[in-house]
Design a protein that fits this description.
The complex is a heterodimer.
Chain A lengths: L7 H5 L2 H8 L6 H12 L5 H19 L24 E6 L8 E7 L2 E7 L12 H10 L9 E4 L2 E4 L2 H18 L2 E6 L5 H12 L3 E6 L6 H11 L6 E2 L6 E5 L10 H10 L10 E6 L4 H4 L3 E4 L4 H12 L13 H13 L4 E5 L9 H14 L7 E2 L12 H12 L5 E5 L3 H4 L6 H5 L4 E6 L11 E4 L8 E6 L2 E5 L12 H8 L12 H5 L20 H18 L5 H11 L1 E3 L13 H5 L11 E5 L13 H5 L7 E2 L4 E3 L1 H7 L5 E6 L4 E8 L7 E5 L23 E2 L5 E2 L1 E2 L3 E8 L3 E2 L14 E3 H6 L25 E6 L8 H9 L7 H5 L8 E7 L6 E7 L8 H5 L5 E3 L5 E3 L9 H4 L7 E2 L28 E2 L5 H13 L12 H5 L5 E5 L6 H6 L4 E2 L11 E4 L1 E3 L3
Parallel strand pairs in A: 6-7, 6-14, 9-10, 9-12, 10-11, 14-15, 15-16, 20-25, 22-24, 31-42, 32-41
Antiparallel strand pairs in A: 1-2, 2-3, 4-5, 4-16, 8-13, 17-18, 18-19, 20-28, 21-30, 23-24, 23-29, 26-27, 32-39, 33-34, 35-36, 37-38, 40-41
Helix pairs in contact in A: 5-25, 8-13, 11-12, 11-13
Chain B lengths: L16 H13 L4 H27 L14 H12 L1 H12 L9 H21 L27 H34 L3 H10 L7 H34 L11 H27 L8 H32 L2 H12 L3 H13 L7 H4 L2 H28 L14 H24 L5 H7 L15
The chains are: A alpha/beta, B mainly alpha.
Chain lengths: ~1000, ~450
Amino acid sequence: MKHYWKSLEALEKNPEFEAAMQKEFLHTPEELSADVEADEKSGVSRREFLRLMGASVVMASAAACTRRPVEKIVPYLNKPQEITIGIPNWYASTCGECPAACGLLVKTREGRPIKLEGNNEHPLNQGKICARGQASILNLYDPDRLKGPMKNNNGSFKETTWEEADKTLQEVFKNIQNKKGSIRLLTGHIPSPATRRLIQEFLGRFENAKQVVFEPLSLEEVSRGQEASYGTPVVPHYHIDKAKILVSFGADFLDTWLSPVEFTNRFAKNRKLKNGSMSKFVCFESIASLTGSNADLRIPVKAGDELKIALALAHELGAPIAADTDGVDRKMIRQLALELKKYPGETLVLGGGYANKGPDGLALQIVCNFINSVLGNDGSTIDAQNSPSLQAGGSYEELFKLIDEMANAQVDLLLIYKTNPAYILPKHFKFEEAVQKVPLVVDFADREDETAALAHWILAENHYLESWGDAEPLKGLFSLFQPTIRPLYNTRSFQETLLAWSPPPLNPLPQGEGKKRETPPPLEGEGRLSAGSVAEGEGWHDYLKKFWQENIYARSGALVPFELFWESALRSGVVDLRRGSGHAPRPFNANALTALKIPGEDNALHLMVYPTIPAYDGRSANNSWLKELPDPVTKITWSNFISVAPEKAKELKIKDGDVVKVKTANAELKAVVHLQPGQPKEVVSIPLGFGRTKAGEVGNEIGTNAFQFISKSKNGDLVWFTQDVEIHPTGEWVQLAKTQIHDHMHGRPIVQETTLAEYQKDPKAGNENPTHLPSMWSKHKYEGYRWGMAIDLNSCTGCSACVIACQAENNIPVVGPERVKRGREMHWIRIDRYYEGDEKNPKVAHQPMLCQHCENAPCETVCPVLATVHDDEGLNVQIYNRCVGTRYCNNNCPYKVRRFNWFEYLRETPAPLAMVFNPDVTVREKGVMEKCTFCHQRIQEGKNKAKDFGVEVKDGEIQSACQQTCPAEAIVFGNLNDPESRVSKMAKSDRGYHVLADLNTVPSITYLTKVRNEG
Amino acid sequence: MEATFEQEPLLNPKKTLTDVNIDVCKPMERLPSRSWFVCFAIAASLTVFGLCLFVHQLRTGMGVWGLNNPVGWGIDITNFVFWIGIGHAGTLISAILFLFRQKWRTSINRSAEAMTIFAVMTAGLFPIIHLGRNWLFFWLLPFPNTRGSLWVNFRSPLLWDVFAVSTYFTISLVFWYLGLIPDFASIRDKAKHKVRKLVYGVLALGWQGKQSHWNHYEIAYLILAGLSTPLVLSVHSIVSFDFATSVLPGWHTTIFPPYFVAGAIFSGFAMVVTLLVIVRKVFQLEDYITMVHLENMNKIILATGLMVGYAYGSEFFTAWYSGNIYEMFTFKNRALGPYAWAYWTMITSNVIVPQLFWFRRFRRSIPVMFVISLIVNIGMWFERFTIIVTSLHRDFLPSSWDMYIPRWVDWGYTLFSFGFFFTFFLLFCRFFPTIAMSEVKSTMHVGRKTPETEEFVF
C-alpha cells in the first residue's frame, strides 16, 4: 500500500510532529487558556471559575437534598364502580329513629351518608320525613358514640374486644343453659320481622327466656281498647285522608302519635281546597299541642274531660250512657254529632294520645270506637283487619312483671336492646334497684347511657345507617334497611351479635338456617375493624335475605328469581303486599261501653307530660340539631319547661322564666315556667325527653326529666298525668332560649286568613286588597328560568321538618342555648307562629319564613361591596367570599331572614360531626352573612342534568330541601316563567299574596291564605 | 348719639400682641403638669384597652359584641354617628362662621377644629371595627384590583359614607393645618432649643409673615372655607342616609338630613364648650376664651337644641299623619317600649335641659354650662342609640323581634373611643397652640383705641 505523506515534517518523521499527530487536538483548551492566563496574569481562569462554580452548585444542591422517603400518590384511576366523585349515590333504606319506620333515601357522597330524604315509593310517608328523621343522620356522627364494646370493671367501663365479649358471654349462655337459668331480653318496639324472628329463635334455645317489649310512647291503650270493643288487640291503620270530619280527643297525630309523617301528609291532602272544599278538624285537648293548633275548632278541656265529652258525643249518637260536660257547650256537641252523621263512613274520631294516658285512657278508646262504629267508620277510615299498623307495641304489664322478677332475683341474665328504661322509668318504680340484683346485664347501646351504665357489658351498637334490617310498619308492607357506610367504629349490630353467639340450639331450627350460624363466619377481608365485627354484612345479611326469601318473597308471588326480587326490593326499598284497605265493619261489643265508669268532677290542678316533635322520648337527646329545633308550639329550644296558662300563672304569682318546684306524690323536680296561651287553666304540662344524665355532651343535664312524674295506676297502666300537683316558686329566674318572643301580629297583614264559608263565597276572601305598586325602576328581565316558591299556609302544620332538612342540606351550624337567647340562631328557614284572639283559646297560624328572594330586594341596594346581588333567574344570591360583614343587608331586610356568622362555628364542630356536611355547600366563615339560597346547589344540579339531555328543567324536578321533606306538601318550588308549573299556578291563585307587599319588595315567595273551616 | 348697644369686648382689652404669643405658647414651653400626665395615662390606657378588645374580636368574631339578629347595629354605629356629630362644630366654626365674619370664632376655632379632626378619626374607626371581616375593610374602597371585575356598590349609602367622611376629614385636616402655619412660625421664632426650632420650622413651611405670604394665605383660607362649608352639611346628611334610605320604620324618613345636621352642630358645640371650659381654666386662657365666646356657643346650643326638639316632634307627627301602622308602632315603641328609658333620657337631655340657656345667668355660668354641655352630649349619644336600636329591634315581623343588650365589649369600645379621642386631644394641647394666635390678634384693639384708655395699643 502506498503511503502518502501529508507534509514535509511527516516525510521527515520528525518526532515532535509524530507526537503532535497522535493528539486529538493540536492545542488542548487547557494549554490555550494557560497561555491566555499567562498573558493576563490573572488568578482564576474563566473555565476554572465555571468549573468551580459548577462543582459548588452541585455540591450545595446535593447537600440540600436529603433523600426523602418515596411517597407514592395514586391517581383515581381504578375507581370503585359505583362512586363518581361529586355525584351522590342514593340508597333506599328505612328510618330507624322512631317506630313509625318511614321509608328513606340516603344520599351518600364519596361513601358517606350526608342527607336523608323520604322514599317516594314508600306508601306511608311518600317521600317525606319528619324533623327527627332528618336529624337522625347526625346521630351517626355523634362524637359520644361508643367506639367499641365496653366491659364494666367495678363501676368503670373499659374498652374490650368482641372476642372477649363473645367468649365470656358464650360461657355464660352455656352455664345458663346447663342450670336452666332465666334470660330476659328487654327491648323497645322492634318493627323488624326478621329481627323478631331471630330473637324468637335465639331465645327459643333457652328453657326460660322471654322477650319483654317496652316502648315508652307505646299505644297500648289503643290495642286494648280495640280488644275490649271488637275482640282483637290491634292498632288500626287510620285513613286520615278519607275523613271529611276529623275529631280528636287528645290524639296528637300531627306531633308524634303513631305515624306523624303519614298523618300530616294525609291531613294536609284534605286542606288543599281542591274543588273549594276541605276537611274539618275538631280537637279536644288538655294541653296546647301542635295538633290542636291546626284544628278548625279547638276546645281546651281539663285533663281527663276528654272522656266525658266523648261520652256526650256518643250519647248524641245513641249511646246508652251520658256524662256531664261541664265547661263545654252541649249545643256545640250536638251540632258536631249532626255534622258527623252527615258523612257516614267518611269521618274519623281519634282518641287516646299521650295526653289521655291516664286511668281513663282505655275508656276513652272504647267510647271512640263506639262512635266510629256508629258512624260507619270502622272498615272505611279505620283499617283494623287488612293491614293494621305495627308501628306500636309494648306492654307495661310485662315490664312491671320483669321488674318484680328482677327484684326477686329470678333473672340470671338481662339483655337490653333499643330501650332506655333507667332513664324513662321514674325512681319509684325501682328499676335500678331491681337491675342491680341481676347477676349479668348486657346492654346493646350506642352510648354509655343511663341504662348502659347499669350493665356489665355494653355491646356497642351500630347506627341504623350502618346496619342491615327490615321493617313492617303496616301489616304486609315491608321495607329494608341498607347499610350506607361501613361502621365508623368497632361496633356490631344486635342481630349480628346474636348470630355470633349462636349457642347450640335446643330445638331443631327451621331447616337451612341453623347450620350457617353454628360456625361463625370466617375472619377474612381486609380493613375489617376487628375480629368481632368481621361478621358484619355476612351473617345477619344472609339471615335477613333468607328470611325475606322464605317469607316476603314467598308471599309476594313474584315471578322473578329471588335474587332479582331482592335486588329490586333493595332498589326501591319497599315491598307492598297489603291487601285492599276496606273491610266489613266489626261488631261492637256494647258491654264494653255500658260497663264504663264515668269519672267524677275533678277540678284539681293536673300535671301532664307529653312528647314533642324535637324531643320525643329523649332517645336522640344528644342530637344538637334537634336540641336547637324550636318546639313547634312554644318556640323554645334547648330545654323543656312547664307550660302554665297565663290565667293560672297570675293566680300562682309566677311569670315566664320563673323556676318552680313541681311536686307530685312521686317526684319533686324543678322546671322553668312558660306561659302558654290556650293551655287549660287546670293543667300544667311538661314535655318529655329532657333531663338526660348520660346522653352525651350535648344532651346531658338539660331541663326536667318529666318521665319522673309518671305513675302506675291500679290496673297496671302507666299514668301520664298526675292530679294534685303543687307548684312552688323558688325565686330563681332563667331566660328560656326562645326563637320567637312576640306572638301577636299587631294587626299586620302577615298571615292572611279567612273562613271556609267566606272563601266559598269569594276565593279572594282574606286577600281582598292585593297591593300592586308602581315602580320607578325598570323590572329585572328573566329570560330563562325564574325561580319562585309558593307556600300554602292552609297546609303547613308547623311540624318543622323543613327546618332540619334545610340545616342538613345547607351545613347550618348549631349555636347553642346562650346564643339563641341572644337572638343569634342560624336557621335559614323558621316557622313563625302567631296567636290571635282570646288568650284562653287563641287561633294559631304557622308561617314558614325564609328569604323571599325579592325582586326589589332591600338588601341588595345597601351592600357596599356587592356581596348580595340579583341573578338572572330571580335569585337573590349571597356571595360569601365578597361579604365583609356590615350587616346592613340584614338591618334592611323586612323579613329578617338573613343570618350572620357571629363566630367561627366550624371551629366548634368536633370530629366526626363535620362528615355530615354537604360538600356542595360552602361552609361559611365568621363575619359573613348568609341566608336561604333556594338550595342553589340543587337548582344547579337540576339544570346540569337537564342540560345533559338538552332539555328544559321539568316542573318538580328541582326541589328545595324544605319542599322535598315537607310532609304537608305546603311548599312548592319551581319556575315562575313556566305558566304551567305548579308554582306559577299557585302564585296566580286568588289566595296568593306577598308578605309585606306594601313595601314593594315583590317577593318570589307567594303565600296562600289560611282558610279555617269554622262554623 | 353713639350707639347704645356697646359690644362687650371679645378679649381682655389689656392684652397686647406679645401677651398673646406668650400666653398661648406658655403651656407648650413648660413641662406638662402632673394632672396632664394622669389624664394622658388614662386616655392612653383606654386606647390600648381598645386595641386589646379589637384583638379579642378578631380572634373570636363579631359575636363578642351584644348584637344579634334583628339588631345588626348597636353601640358600634351609635358611636360612629356620635363622633361624626361631634366633629361637626369644628368646621362649622372655622368655615361657616368665618364666611359670616363672626370674629368671636377666632379664639375657639383652633381647638374646635382639632376636636373635629380627632372626633372624625375616632368615628372612622367604628365602621372598620363593626365589620364582620375587618381585615377586608379596604374592599369598601373603589380601587383597581386583581379580584376580577369586583367593584363597589355606588348605590349603597355605606359607600357614600366612605367618601363623605374621608373627604370631610381631608378638608378639615388641610384647613386646620393651613390655619396653624403662621402660629407654627411664631413658635419657631420663639423657640430656643435647636430641635424645637427645626420641628416647628418644618411645620411652618418656611412662613415668614411677608405680605405675599399673608396674601396667599388669606385667599387659600377663604377658598378652603368655601369648600368645607357644604361639607358641614353634606357629611351628616350622608351619614343620615344610612338610615333614611333604608326601608325600616323609624329610619325611613326624609327629615333625617337636616335633623342630623342640627343634631350634629348641637352636640359639636356642646363638646366644644365642655373642652374649652377645661382648657381655658387649665391653661389660664380666660382672657382669650371669654364669657362672650362661651355665651355665643350656648346660644347656638339653645337654637340647635330647639331644632332637634322640633325634629323629634315632627317625627311623631309624621308617623301619626302617615297612617302607616309600622311607623306608628315604631314611635309608640320608642316612647313606651323597652327602650323608653333611652328615649326619655334623650328628650330630657336634648330638649328640656338646654332650655335653661334662655336665661343669661345660666348662659354665663361656667358650672351650669359645663354640666349642660355634658348632659347634651349624653343626650345626643342616646339619640343615636334610640334611632338605631329601637328601629331595629322591632321592625316588620313580630316573630323576629328581639332585644339588644350591650355587653362589656360594646361599652368597652365606647370607653376606648373617649380614650382615643382624648389621647390625641391632650397631645394637641401640649404641642400645638390651642388658640389661633394670628387670628386672635386680628380681633384685638391693636391699632384701635380701647374704650377705657382712649389710647392706641401696640
